[in-house]
Amino acid sequence: MPAERNGVALAGLYLSPVLSYRALSNAPTAFNTPVNSGRRGGAGVLVGWQLPLGHPSAPHLVFDFAVGVLTWARLGDDRTSDPAYYDYVDEPIFRRTGILPDVRYGLGFQF
């Protein structure tokens, strides 16, 4: 016999498409180090699990954990505060495009 759901409609395993946006920048690490910035857009898929953190018959918090993959692309040109030092834009955070793993976790409220 199937178990009752007890109002826990959001708890459980899920598969979700994802669209994402990231605005990147670095902080200067030395005197006269240029500030660089860039934008990335991503799309992918996550597999996740929502776990209720309270009594199932009342509104409560859920813990959400998901893993998946996203593919990232540049949105426009990367910028630097000093074009003479454009090589600084080649830092690892700015090179990360293509298919990359993604992990997310958080708290949600079920009502």
Could you describe the 3D structure shown?
It contains one helix and five strands, in the order ββββαβ. It has 111 residues and is mainly beta. It has one domain. Strands 1, 2, 3, 4 and 5 form a five-stranded antiparallel sheet that branches. A hairpin with a 7-residue loop joins β2 (36-52) and β3. The longest helix is centred in the C-terminal third of the chain and has 4 residues, at 92-95. It is elongated.
Tags for this model:
5-stranded antiparallel β-sheet, 111 residues, 4% helix, single chain, 1 helix, mainly beta
Topology:
Layout: E1 12-25, E2 36-52, E3 60-74, E4 79-80, H1 92-95, E5 98-110
Give a brief description.
The protein is mainly beta and 111 residues long.
**Strand percent estimate:** over 45%
Fraction of helical residues: under 10%
Radius of gyration: 20 Å
The string of secondary-structure elements, in order, is: EEEEHE
Looking at how many chains there are and whether they match, the oligomeric state comes to single chain
pLDDT below 50 for ≥5 consecutive residues: which ranges? none
Mean pLDDT: 76
Number of strands: 5
**What does the largest sheet look like?**
5 strands, antiparallel
Number of domains: 1
- Termini separation: 27 Å
Q: Tell me the structural class.
A: mainly beta
What's the total helix number?
A: 1
Query: Globular, elongated, flat, extended or rod-shaped: what is the shape?
Result: elongated
